[in-house]
Each structure stands twice: as structure tokens, then as C-alpha cells.
Design a protein that fits this description.
- This protein has 111 residues and is of the alpha+beta class.
- 37% of the residues lie in helices and 13% in strands.
- The chain has five helices and two strands; from the N terminus they run βαααααβ.
- It has a two-stranded antiparallel ribbon with strand order 1-2.
- Helix 2 crosses helix 3.
- The chain is elongated, with a radius of gyration of 28 Å.
- The termini are far apart.
């Protein structure tokens, strides 16, 4: 059975809990810890969910916000819905319709 894995980036929530409400507040704190990101990169880190994140940046964020990576990244895994095979049975919720059949073509002799 396949597993569906998802995650939620919670940096903005954790920042707000620590009194940091702007990305510009975070930038100098990252620079103090040796993480050199531009103001645009920091803004993207705060406002968007990153697909890739370096461990030095994650460690610096955890140090700044005195939290664990699990508090910044909420993960969820659940079983994917199994695919159903066609069985030929009709669904009770679907109203039955008359079967659609093509109309027979009639070929007429040329006159």
C-alpha cells in the first residue's frame, strides 16, 4: 500500500510566537549565525514553503527561535486510498440510463 506524505512549513507561526513579524527582522539574526541570504531569499523563506532547505539554515532558524525542526516542519503520512478495480457493478447513487447504441447507417442506391 502506498503512503501519502505531506508537510507544512510553520516558520511564520513560530516567528510570530517569538515576536518576529517581518522577514526583515529575521535577516540580521541569520547573518549573526553565518547564514548569508539576501533579503529576497529570507522573504521567500518566510512567506513560501521551501522544497529544499539546507541544514545550516535549518539549524540557524532553530537556534534563533529556540525550537526543534519538528516545530518548524509539521509532517503527515497516511495511507493512500486504494485503487478500485472495475467490477461491472453499478453504483447505487448513479441513476440508470438507457444504453446508448449507435444508429444503424442506411446506404441508399444512387439515383
Amino acid at each position: 500500500m502506498k503512503r501519502q506524505v505531506s508537510y507544512q512549513w510553520r516558520l511564520r507561526e513560530v516567528m510570530a510566537a517569538h515576536g518576529l513579524f517581518n522577514a526583515s527582522d529575521l535577516e540580521p539574526l541569520l547573518h549573526e549565525r553565518g547564514v548569508k541570504l539576501s533579503s529576497v531569499q529570507v522573504w521567500r523563506l518566510v512567506t513560501q514553503t521551501p522544497e529544499r532547505l539546507s541544514l545550516p539554515v535549518l539549524a540557524a532558524l532553530c537556534d534563533i527561535l529556540t525550537c526543534t525542526p519538528a516545530e518548524l516542519i509539521a509532517t503527515r503520512a497516511e495511507n493512500a486510498a486504494p485503487r478500485r478495480a472495475a467490477t461491472g457493478e453499478t453504483n447505487a447513487n448513479v441513476t440508470e440510463m438507457a444504453p446508448i447504441r449507435p444508429k444503424r447507417a442506411r446506404i441508399l442506391p444512387e439515383s
